[in-house]
Amino acid sequence: HPSVHKHVDRPVEVGLIDYLLRGRAAETAHLFMMEEEATGLNLVLGSEASSVATDSLILSQRFASVIDYASKEFEVVIIDSPPVGLVVDPQLIAREYATVALYVVKADATSQRAVKAAFRDLAMHASIPIVGLLNQVSANSKGYGKYSSYYR
Fold first, then answer.
1. How far apart are CA 121 and CA 90, in angstroms?
2. Which helix (H) or strand (E) element contains residue 113?
3. 91-119: per-residue pLDDT in tens?
4. How far is CA 90 from the centre of its chain?
5. 123 near 130, Cβ under 8 Å?
6. Alpha carbons 21 and 57: distance in angstroms, whole number
7. How many angstroms separate the CA atoms of 63 and 44, rounded?
8. In angstroms, rounded to a whole number, what is the distance separating the alpha carbons of residues 20 and 105?
9. Are 147 and 122 in contact (CB under 8 A)?
10. What is the DSSP string of 89-108?
11. Pairing with 100, which of 60, 71, 92, 134 sits 20 to 30 Å away (CA)?
């Protein structure tokens, strides 16, 4: 469910999925690539959710070409994927394209069981380092016992 374009307040005429599905010409690439003004980050925008299984799109030559291009042009490439465990996309991305996996966990909302299962799943499908990040930690968080102040 692509949503980056909503966060940067930019409508998407042609998105990454359109390119992957229909192979839009190179001259339309500017429609799904942008530089975000506030940070200077370059973003590849999605579009609407795909009606085609995204695993086949991720394993396509077109997606490999996008990743190859980004890897040559930029120092760091971040691929935002759906949550681990819901679909196979994160495992495929980790196995085929990633050099490290960053697993973001919403504080006080994601169970330890889910986190452990996701780490095991990623480790089983890709032999890359997996780094965890605790997100949206509340100053009032009591869910981490004696470590609560550490996370603040």
1. 10
2. helix 112-125
3. 999 999 999 999 888 888 888 898 899 98
4. 8
5. yes
6. 7
7. 12
8. 29
9. no
10. HHHHHHHHT-SSEEEEEETT
11. 60
